[in-house]
Specification:
23% strand
Length: 166
């Protein structure tokens, strides 16, 4: 199974204030996101993290990455320093990727696009960065935790969401 997520910002207290995440502190935030990830993902699954994995503070990403189930692929975000991108726990690291799942071309980037490859042929743009604040476009989905119930989601879940237009 393939899952998608982004903008976890592990260890970064700014998300409690800016994104109004429902946790009193970062310890509870991180524990909840790790638990939700591991309840959703099995060790054999692939998880595409669309950027902004963890705080830039030394050791945060290094401590959390091995605690998460699945083969983890990083699409680099604006808050992913070399200390995060250089970790051995990533199965792959990209700034942009294209995947085909169930016959659908997926365009993955941390940033949302106005247009994307094969947009007119029903391809789908998955992104993070906007923390659920952008007006949806047809076949464009924010997979960040602020838009997706704080956990990774499958393509089927994304397409079944009420705002769909897929």
């Amino acid at each position: 199974m393939d899952y998608f997520t982004g903008d976890t910002h592990f260890g970064d207290a700014r998300v409690l204030r800016i994104d109004r995440r429902p946790f009193p502190n970062m310890a509870e935030h991180d524990a909840a996101l790790i638990a939700l990830w591991n309840e959703t993902v099995s060790p054999q699954d692939d998880v595409w993290h669309l950027g902004d994995f963890a705080s830039k503070r030394p050791g945060v990403a290094e401590n959390i990455l091995p605690r998460l189930k699945g083969r983890k692929h990083l699409i680099v975000g604006n808050n992913d320093p070399v200390e995060t991108t250089g970790l051995a726990g990533w199965s792959s690291i990209h700034h942009y990727a294209e995947l085909t799942i169930d016959g659908r071309l997926l365009i993955l980037c941390h940033y949302p696009f106005r247009t994307w490859n094969q947009m007119g042929k029903r391809s789908i743009n998955l992104h993070g960065h906007s923390h659920g604040r952008l007006k949806p476009m047809p076949r464009q989905f924010d997979v960040g935790v602020d838009a997706q119930h704080l956990r990774p989601v499958s393509l089927a879940e994304i397409l079944a969401a009420p705002r769909g237009n897929a």
